[in-house]
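Sequence in, structure out.
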Amino acid sequence: MPINQSAWLTAEHLPEVKQFIDQHPEIESVDLILFDTNGKERGKRIPVSLLPKVVEQGVCLPASVFALDIQGETIEETGLGFDQGDSDRQCRLVPNTLSVIPWKPGVAQAMLTMLCAEREVGFFADARQVLRRQLLAMKARGYQPCVAVEYEFYLQDLEPDEQGMPQPPIMPLSKKRMSETQVYSLDELDEFKDFIDEVIAVCEAQNIPAANITAEYAPGQFEVNLKHSTDVLLACDQSLLMKRAIRAVAKQHGFTANFMAKPYSEYAGSGCHIHISLLDEEGDNLFIKKPEILHHSVAGVLETMPQSMAVLAPNANSYRRFQPNKFVALWPNWGWDNRTVALRIPSDSEENRRLEHRLAGADCNPYLVVAVILASMQEGMDKQLNPPEPITGNAYEMAGENHFPLSWPEALEAFRSCEVLYRHLTPEYCHVYLENKYSEQLTFAAQVSPLEYQWYL
């Protein structure tokens, strides 16, 4: 859905919705999905007979959905709970997300986005609307972003190991437990062929453009790529729906799909890599047409990267991923075709010149990550910032300046002090996000871990 098209379905879309219902007489109900601040699905299930009414009138959910922490508790400090009487907001269906659910016979799904009380604009605390505002700002400059999302994840056994911890799965064909790192292994793809084939088939059934799946740098770790798209909102919609699909398919095959940033201490973490370029109104790649735009964009992203960590690494576990030689950068840097840096310019054809932002973890909210990247690019272009020299060689062996905050409390404080993000994302949204995450961080810090008993009892 290009930016200038409908941001949500209205009565004019009724014919295509009714056509979907007619084409799928087996559908009895529809899951209406709203992704919260943490990218976790919330929503309602309705009889399919009510779907046309929802298209015309919307459906109500409380604004406090975006005040929920990772455990589903309302964080009152956000101001979205009792302070507003826990009031409802109208939610409308997101275009291009109505589809069947292959693993739930008789059930379809569609995404929701929340509107303000006046029902004319998106609700400020909906992460999807945070991204939409950045896209509109880019459009006002005459730029059309083009985005592709990549996720890494682990397949794990349903049963924990002897210590009660998650463990790699048993391979379906050889019946051996995975224990080796075989990056890009075709043998591992053969072992998990049935799972991979079903993921691709489910994605096709749901119009999710999953390009390929590769074996990654640890036992049971895989990467799945989505095709690039100028419909940036839809690209992020599809990335979250793909995670939902992968989890469901994994469960059917006797596995758990884990999108934690760092599920194992001894292996590499899982990232969410964002590929992004800018097109002009003629569809030409501005990173080629005007190389200074590429340089200003790189500089802007690098300048705000340390203050963005609270979004790129949103949870306590996120910070365990940042270790040397684990394919994640430790300070703001960039380079040409270099996977040890934070911003990589892949060695592809010139027409595909793009940035690969490699810092976010697989536990991130893609709407917010892309919004932060676009806001930072705008800042770099507006101020005509210039980047430092690109890194050649192993960035882990070099000492850089302005290291990332590598603990959750430090990252939250860095975010709070970032004037750029407050200005672009709005103070109102930054307040909601920070209060949500501060409360979560304090709750986490107050817990006594098993390791503390082991070490100190």
